[in-house]
Amino acid sequence: MPKTRLISPGSIPNHKLLKNLQLQDNYLSNDGGDEGIRIDNDGKVGVGDINPIGTLSVAGTLALTSEGITPTQPQDGKGYIYTKAGGGLYWRSYDLTELSLSGGAADGLTAVQPADTFYIGTTSIAHNRGSGALTLAGITLTTPDIGTPSAGTLTNCTFPTLNQSTTGTAAIATTVTLTDNESTDEANPLWFSAGAAGSGNIAPEADGDLYYNPSSGILGTKGLKLSYNGSNYADITVADDGEIEIANTASGVTGDITLDSAADIRLEAAQGDVFMYGASQATSSFFFQLAGNPTMTVNSSGDASDEFLLAVNANGQTDFITRESGGGSTAHLDIDIDGAIILDSHTGEFIAKKAGTEFSVANSSFAGMILGYATVGIDAAPDAYTLTTSFAVTDSGHNVSFIAPPSGVVEIFVSVYCDFNRRTVELGLSDNSSYNTIDVTHEHQVTLPPSSAGDRQINHRWVITGLTAGTSYRYYLGAKSSHALANVFRWGGDSTGEYAPFIMKATALPTAVGSYAVYG
Predict the structure, then answer these.
(1) Cα three-residue angle 287-293-296, rounded to 5 degrees
(2) d(Cα 135, Cα 164) in Å, to the nearest integer?
């Protein structure tokens, strides 16, 4: 190819081109060879490159042979590439004070900007060069150029602590999924920190699904553990049949479960049963503590006005109340116990009322209770005792045992057949099988000799006062006759025409009150 040279005469320092220089696909070359600068029809410049692909394309090494300093800020849309001491390569633009293009193990790709802010698109990102933290402050970060991959997984990545402080609204059109490795290591959950330690962190570690739908208010998971620390926590577990269990574990013994409602607390069981169990059914206790004078009400499913009430009043006074709708009188209280019914009054007072009025002697509804009962001679051979002129116990079996009632007053009754022989009979009570009178005032004459011999059944009663409530007593029958060998007590029989059994019993009497129970 022919070569064209521009030669300057020795005395003429410069040449001027009065119009554009047309290279016609040729090079600008020092020796006229096919090397140097090539300019295509689009104005793209190639240095050693016959087909430049950019405004400037260099085939080979681009050398910056002078280290400089950070240039001044250029006009918007312009910038510099330069080197500095240490051999680093940098970029300076209108928006970036300095961007290191060389990187390195220590700091990688870094940027320093006015006010420590740089941009992705129009989104500002605050950067702390000292701590290395990258903070999104009150902004929406969008990446429209990245696009939405149809599928893919980011694996084998190690992330340092990522801190984000943000306000405003974030709109997400698709599901965002963070996947835990679901290992058995409960100490490595997905951790969402609210800021300073202990200020409300969230750390779900799910061995199954965990989701929350704010529209329906549904929190979905097999089990939820609410932990104060490793030793104090609560578990909420949902079984596949919908059964829910709430349990707590505490390092001490005060790990209560408290339901604190500003209004009512309702337990509604579709099948009708509500069960409460302690750790041991044999030793469990249940407490209901309500303000004021609380009432527990159980209503009939057929009529809410048919009800049973358990009311606790001042000083622990407790009332069991039944009510029938319409004010009827058939709201009975039935007590059907598969065992004993025990009434234990620590004051010894028992009260029976009708519509609020006590009809028994005050505090003495126990009166009339048979405290002890003894018989001798039922379906047995007849037996007899001949009275002497001194008091003696008539038979070792002629006694009754009892515990004194709250009133300390009892009635002792004796029934025995006597074969009289016109002689006086006296009866007494002994506190020993060898006659020892409980009091001479209880030694009574019970019959006068008839005009002729005759037999009769003696039925006699004593009223004994001053007994100590709750104390056990045993009384024996003692008797004597005004003449020896005159009168005979007889009892028992195992065939017709013989004698009734000997009977002795103790019955509780009411407490002495006014004119209703007088012992004088």
Answers:
(1) 55
(2) 6
Give the span between the Cα atoms of 96 and 114, in whole angstroms: 7
Alpha-carbon dihedral of residues 426, 429, 435, 440, nearest 10 degrees? -70
For residue 482, what are its two tokens? Answer: 């005004």
pLDDT digits (tens, 9 = 90+) for 422-442: 788 999 999 999 999 999 999
Q: Does domain 370-508 have CATH number 2.60.120?
A: yes
Residues 6+ apart with CB under 8 A from 476: 393, 398, 399, 429, 430, 431, 432, 433, 435
Helix (H) / strand (E) containing 474: strand 472-481
Q: Look at residue 257 and give its three-state secondary structure.
A: coil
The answer on pLDDT for 112 being more than 60 is no
Choose between 212 and 150: higher pLDDT: 212
Distance of CA 58 to the CA centre of its chain: 75
Please state the domain extents for the chain.
Answer: 1-6+18-62, 63-139, 204-259, 290-331, 370-508
Please state, in angstroms and rounded to a whole number, the distance separating the CA atoms of residues 89 and 91. 7
CA nearest neighbour of 198 among 225, 228, 224, 231 = 228
- Cα torsion 7, 13, 18, 21 to 10°: value is 40
pLDDT band at 140 (very low <50, low <70, confident <90, very high): very low
Give the chain's mean pLDDT: 75
Q: What is the DSSP letter of 73?
A: P
Short-list 278, 279, 299, CA closest to 287: 278
Question: Which of 336, 306, 337 shows the shortest CA–CA distance to 321?
Answer: 306
d(CA 438, CA 391): 12
Chain centroid, CA 485 distance in Å: 83
CA distance 153 to 130: 33
158 residue type, one letter: T
* DSSP state for residue 366 in the 8-state scheme: T
Report yes or no: 391 and 385 within 8 Å, Cβ to Cβ.
no
Nearest to 179 by CA among 154, 142, 159: 154
Rounded CA separation 253/229 (Å): 16
- For residue 142, name the pLDDT band (cuts at 50, 70, 90): very low
Helix (H, G, I), strand (E, B) or coil at 326: helix
Q: Which residue in 511, 518, 516 sits closest to 364, CA to CA? A: 511
Burial 472-504 (b: 16+ CB within 10 A, else e): ebebbbbbbbbeeebbbbbbbbeeeeebbbbbb
- What are the phi and psi torsion angles at 427 (to 5°)? -120, 145
Angle at 133 between CA 132 and CA 137, to 5 degrees: 145
